Amino acid sequence: MGIKKLNPVTAGTRHKVALTFDELTTDKPFKPLLVPMKKTGGRNNQGKRTMRYIGGGHKQKYRLVDFKRDKHSVACKVLTIEYDPNRSARIALVEYADGEKRYVIAPQGLKVGQSLMSGTGAAPEIGNALFLKDIPLGTTIHNIEMKPGKGGSIARSAGSYAQLTSRDGRYAVITMPSGENRLILGECIATIGVVSNAEHNLQISGKAGRSRWQGRRPRVRGVAMNPVDHPMGGGEGRQSGGLPRSRKGTPAKGYKTRHPKNPSNRFILERRKK
Question: Which residue from 18, 44, 124, 188 puts its CA 20 to 30 A from 55's CA?
Fold first, then answer.
């Protein structure tokens, strides 16, 4: 996996930095695991716009990814490493011994033909999914469950990972990608390794049209609006907007939005670094 700097043949390629896609082994997804995905354009079921700056974009199909890894003690073989338009990480198509095929998040270093397993008997090797109570301390993990059987929801994006630092009774202490230390039940499952495509954040699109392909419309600054449209709008000439805030007036920087009596506060040992 690498990145490439393009020759400035056009204005759009002058500053563009793109991925090489070396690690992909096929460009044809497995059709039974594809489902249609309808664009909303930022509108709700009444046709009213509830999210700004959404619209257009290339037609896509959703890949059904197995975040639960609940087929325990059955070996599977990696068939392909594929691109997924719905996430920054790469996905891998695996085939179990009984013939079932599933998509999983591909960790860094995963190769075609490699054998994977999940459950109690699995070894703590890259791509295997184990219960937190069975993973050795200090291991880097991703796709971590917050509730047993719910499916992984932590550290799923490109290049992200968490670390199992210690155990406290029934709970495991996880250092999150944000730096937060959190208690998670030992019965939750996590996958060993770092998520693939770590160079994702080094990309430079090079032109506005590439954002439009991804379904993003131009974003208007609050200070460029009128007072009726935004709290930071209006003023004579290039007036700054005062305190940064949202369209509804909620402060955007330095304002705590987490409820002080949130029930999950007892699972957070140390808040993220500011």
Answer: 18
